[in-house]
Amino acid sequence: MTPPTGSALLAADLVLGGRALKSRAYFGPHPTNLNRRNEFRPAYAAYLAARAAGGVALLVSEAASVSPDDWPYEYAPLLPEAAGSLAAVARAVHKEGSLLLAGLNHAGGQGSSAYSQQALSAPSPFAETTANELSSQLDEEQIEAIVAAFATAARTALSAGCDGVEVNAGQYSLIRQFLSPLTNQRQDRWGEDRTLFAARVLHGVREQAREGIVGLRLCVDELAPWAGILPAQAASIFAKLEGYVDYLVLERGSIYTQHATIPDFHDGAGFLDQAVEEFRGTHATVVPLAVLDGRVGLREAEEQLARGTVQLAELTRPLIADPQALTGLAGMASARPCAACNQGCQVRDPRNPVVSCAFNPDAGHESEAAGRITRAVRSTGAAKPPWLVAGAGIAGMEAALEASRLGMSVRLCDASDQPGGELRLLAEKGLNPNLAGMFDYYLRALAAAKVEISTSCHLDPAEALAHAQDGGPVVAATGATYSPRPWNLGRLTGTGPQGAPVVTTMREALMSPPAAGVKVALFDPTGGVWAMTVMDALLASGTAFTLITPDRLAGSQLAPTGDLVPAAQRLARAGVRVLADSQVAGLVPGGVRIQERFGAGSQIVEADVLLDCSLPAAPGGWPEHELLRLAGDALAPRGWQAAILDARKAVSELAAEVAGGRL
Amino acid sequence: MAGFKHLFSPITVGRMRLENRIVFSAHLTNYAADGLPGPAHAAYYEARSKGGAGLIITEEHSVHPSDWPYEKMIHGFKPEALPGYRAITSAVHRHSARIVAQINHNGPQGSSMYSRLPLLGPSQVPDPLFREVPKEATSGDLAEVVSGYQLVAARAIEGGFDGVELQCSHSSIVRAFLSPASNHRGDAYGGDLRGRSRLMREIVTAVREAIGPGPALGVRLSGDEMIDDGTTLDDAVALARMLESEGGVDYINTSIGVATASLYSIEASMAISPGYALFIPSAIRKAVNLPVVGVGRIKDPLQAEKALAGGHCDLVGMVRAQIADPELASKSRLGRARDIRLCLSCNQECVGRVGMNRWLGCIENPSAGKEYLGRPPRFSRPSAPRVAVIGAGPAGCQAAISLARAGAMVALVEAGERLGGQLAWAGRVASRAELTDLVRNQRNELSSLGIEPEFGRLIRAEEIALLGADAIVVATGSRDVAPGWAADAGERTMRVISARALMANGPRIPAGATAVIYDEVGFHQGTSAAELLWEMGVKVHFATPLLVAGQDLGITLDYESFRMRAAAHGVQFHTAVIASGAGARSVSFFNHLDGGQLEIEADLLVLSLHATAEDSLFRAARSGGIPALRIGDALSPRRAHAAVIEGDRAPGLLAGILKGGWS
Fold first, then answer.
1. What's the pLDDT at A663?
2. Where does A437-581 show beta strands of DSSP type E?
3. Phi-psi group of A210: left, alpha or beta (phi > 0 → left; psi -120 to 50 → alpha; rest → beta)
4. C-alpha pair distances (Å), A479 with each of A360, B69, B100, B350
């Protein structure tokens, strides 16, 4: 691929460990749950190969444990056992002209004993707040064994065909635990010189990987200024380690801030700019640098490369969102952007979800995606009516694009005066600034696909049925209806007594937020992202509210995106009163009666508005017909990914119906 | 035998003859890999059959791809399940038990995370745990589900099962249809009990048709869902009558609660009375002639015998009791009830692990789920080592037991005057009393093995060599270290004490005094201390840096009942606060979410913090060249299951250290 002039990302002008990189794009190690303890699986090879094919030069495999005592999550690979299967992954990556490094790690006291059923071990005992599991103190013999295991793992990885290794001294790593006074209070040589362990590990790894690339992932700020590593200290540490490595990746976060390493969009892009500046001010790094700083836009990555603040572009999340994103730079197609929502890609979760993307369901499912039909055959004969998609929210837009991809002519209609549905609503709100780019992506893609969009066009079920009966496939994607849900509101019915608060819903609150000064009682039985979006909107508009939740804490389901603690902080700092373990028991004049779930206590929360964050429902009413399919919230209200999956499935089923010659 | 005449009288269920009334009823195990039953299942069920159970009912098998609520569910709808079925049934049938497969569709109580398909439900009511809006099932969807039941039932019989059980309670699409809380349909599948039970009755008819007249067919019904608008006892009795009169069903199994909304009532912890759910089978048995199974924390043969003798049920489900001791039935029958390793109903490693997507285990039976690994190895006679186990807490006792079973010569030495270590005190409050059954079980097992613990003997470092042992096992537990912030500021009237010391010695402050509990651990240590104090009439403030007070009580299903008791005793909770100082008569905190300050006046400060390993003997032995092992809290202070596992692992680890004969 010849890079177009001016694309810093696609420039093939960087050499690492004697190997020329085909671009500046770097795809970092992350849990995927695609592998098993003793095996890197074919689906994982396909996942990486898709990114390599899209132009990434340097890929690092999911960090594998170097020794069996470390088993931080169920499907964390164990390098000594899984190395054989790593060869196939390396071959798949090499086939695309890219390099594969093996991610090596020992999570130390930040692991889990659930799978190994052995005590965690660390430089000094500590317990992370979530697992609350106290680690044991490593003794001299164990430390030496781990040092040796890193070296052995490096040798094994290179024999499996990897081009080198990346050693983790960032989040979830024993090496960082040794480097930091927060977790290393030892009195012996490993405590007197806290870089000793890292140096010994890297020395051993370098010895075994003389011919390969050695990268280091390092914590630049533990966000624990009272005892943790700060940028200047990270620089001093790195000054002692730089001789061993070919490149450096900087990230932040430690035992109290697991959520801060790859935060969602709330933290904004570039959150490490200052820390990296301090780091560079203390130690002028000579090896190429990449930074995990929340930037998810390719344009921002290009700017950083052009400015020279980084030499490698850390593009893990954007390339999960669209493995072909880099080809967009070459003007070949528009890339589906990353929303930095963390709703599909962050899978360090005991349920073991497979890595994916809220907006790109094919991510992590490359093998299945490869089996999707690429072109539908329509029976020949007389002209058939076009495909009709009712509702231009994300499901409808996706259905139109998918049908168009199969070569169908599509008409997309929406009852409102603009397409976009809830995606547009949220894009306009700007709470997640990346959603504007997502909406824009859909508009551009629809225009490129020449989909005819009719706005202010209400299609009722009878018309849809008539169209289907005429042989025209229909996808109904008209979304959900929001109404107060009686089973969550203590069977409240009607409007309550005179002077009782007005009951409103999430969508209403987003479309027309209660004015400042209006007292809001917000009831959230979901603890999820949607309700938190509504709360963020209230916080942004300065609307005071009391949060009532049957859960033990606010935003109880937000841990997977990393927003659980930050959300609690946002609410606390805004002075939001949280009534946990509570139910709404009724409306009274001027307020809402709240009942404790586990006590006899009840109280009145003063409110002008009761905002019910219960999940919406599909309105129903669509007739059954072989040429009519429901998709997205109109089928059952769920999230972005379900809407996209539904849309593609609906189109594929309809294409099969049409091709089946039933018409 | 004479003591349990009801328990050991045979019964015929349909055409299936059972040797006795002890049932190992259905429960999730998470032993499946890639959706299929495997060797762990076969060995696990075989152990209970060999141990004398009358009837085994397996965990559920999914009947349709739209039902995949948790990762390790058995996909009965896959033909590949058949070899696993045959392996399970042939293993079980090597002994006297009969085995029935439970088949199910969880309906709306699930997640699309794994299936990527919408959930199916009677109405669009999201489950309060999974929080996903289901699709309202169409008649086409229901027909598919019913044929899935037929297919899987037929496969189970082909695989050698003696019958099938339809899960129509806990978590099931049938339950959702039966319950007015989730069924709001206006069609023939909704409305009155007859309408709501139509799906169940269709499935019964279809399944009986699929399996023929021979195999047993059971239905499991909930007698009280413990939720607003849920199924009631009257409904359950009416449903049982309906099933009996329409025919096709051979037995009724019973349950209480909903697996998602009110799980704490299904697998009640030790805080709830044994046999708490027997009113349900009792009422149903009065209404029908079909055999009825009763369940609900029946953990010893005497309780089971009484349930039968009292006419509450015809068969008794004893799940956790037989997880803890697979030989419960045979020991009861042979007059060895004293040797039964009684279940604690601690819920820690069975319910708790399974809820976290991990394989089912047991706090006191490390072999649970590991039966497929076979019998543990033994020391060969001439080289059997002499081992001194120092410390008779759960780790030391288990080490002594497992070492003796492996053929070692064991001396068990304890500095104090009793067995059990911290467990002896931890069971001091009513809600945790049965925890001390672990001590009872170990005491009985030690005495059966002829091990006489030596009490009141404190071993000093210089005495290790005098023990004359080939190796020592250090199980000396942990000690509390007061943190710097709690150091005495002088003139202090407030007493400061560790939670452990409080449990051991009692509060020694007058009723009416005020205590602050500061809990960093998040498990029962802090909450039991609170309970001890409120029972003495002390006013309790419960402060914790965690976001939820008693955070990990959710795992053992103790959260709800703890909060109810705490509310009744006026406990005040302060979450997200970090203690910063202890003054003369007050404790100061700051809130780590918003930086707010808090000061609480108190007469007593109780510290529930992570302890420090007491491993000085281990270090002394190592430096003296004596082979040594440290286990339990002496390795790293954690929970009892770790102590037991490490004690059980002592023979293997010592064999490695001593490199002696081991086979």
1. 40
2. 452-454, 474-476, 502-505, 520-523, 545-548, 577-579
3. alpha
4. 20, 25, 44, 41
Domain ranges for chain A: 14-370, 387-481+619-659, 486-612
Please name every residue paired with A58 in a beta bridge, in sequence order, or none if there are none. A26, A99
Average pLDDT over residues A499-527: 92
Q: What is the DSSP letter of B466?
A: G
More confident residue, B663 or A194: A194
Query: What is the share, in percent, of chain B residues with pLDDT greater than 70?
Result: 99
Provide the 3-class DSSP secondary structure of residue B353. helix
CATH number for region A486-612: 3.50.50.60
What is this model's ipTM? 0.95
Does domain A14-370 fall into CATH 3.20.20.70?
yes
Please determine, for residue A332, whether its predicted confidence score (pLDDT) is greater than 70: no
Q: Would you put residue B490 in left (φ > 0), alpha (ψ -120 to 50) or beta? A: left
In this structure, are residues A320 and A29 in contact, taking their beta carbons and an 8 Å threshold?
Answer: no
Q: What are φ and ψ of residue B146, in 5° steps?
A: -60, -40
Q: Find chain B residues with C-beta within 8 A of A113's C-beta.
A: 638, 642
Interface of B with A in 177-216 (CB under 8 A): 181
Digit-coded pLDDT (tens) for A44-54: 999 999 999 99
Q: Does the domain formed by A387-481+619-659 have CATH 3.40.50.720?
A: yes
Query: Mean pLDDT in chain B?
Result: 95
Alpha-carbon A553 to chain mean position = 23
User: Mean per-residue pLDDT for B608-630?
Assistant: 95
Distance of CA B412 to the CA centre of its chain: 29
Sign of CA dihedral B652, B656, B657, B660: positive
Tokens (6 digits) for A592 = 């809402």
Token pair belonging to A132: 């609350």
Distance CA A423, CA A437 (A): 10
How many beta carbons lie within 10 A of that of residue A371, not counting itself? 7
Q: Do the beta carbons of residue A549 and residue A524 sit within 8 Å?
A: yes
Give the A window 569-588 contacts with B, CB below 8 Å. 569, 571-573, 575, 581
- Residue-level length of chain B: 663
pLDDT score for A484: 72
What local confidence, expressed as pLDDT, does residue B478 receive? 97
What does pTM read for this prediction? 0.96
Give me the sign of the Cα torsion angle A333, A338, A343, A344: positive
Q: State how far the alpha carbon of A185 is from the alpha carbons of A76, A170, A225, A389, A415, in Å.
A: 28, 19, 16, 64, 65
Domains and CATH numbers, chain B: 2-373 (3.20.20.70), 381-479+613-658 (3.40.50.720), 484-610 (3.50.50.60)
The tokens 């899209």 sit on which residue? A54
Q: Is A5 exposed, middle or buried, given 0-12, 13-18 or 19+ CB atoms closer than 10 A? A: exposed
The candidate with the shortest Cα–Cα distance to A115, out of A97, A133, A141, A100, is A133
C-alpha distances out from residue A469 to A197, A383, A621, A652, B321, Å: 72, 15, 17, 19, 61
Residues in chain B within 8 Å Cβ distance of A646: 118
Closest CA to B161 of B82, B73, B52, B253: B82
Which residue has tokens 């593009």?
A315
- Whether B124 sits inside 8 A of A636 (CB atoms) is yes
CB spacing of B181 vs A525 below 8 angstroms: no
- A327 shares contact with chain B (CB less than 8 Å): no
3-state secondary structure (DSSP) of residue B178: helix
**DSSP β-ladder status, B586-591 and B597-601:** antiparallel
Give the nearest partner residue to B112 out of A120, A599, A642, using CB atoms.
Answer: A642
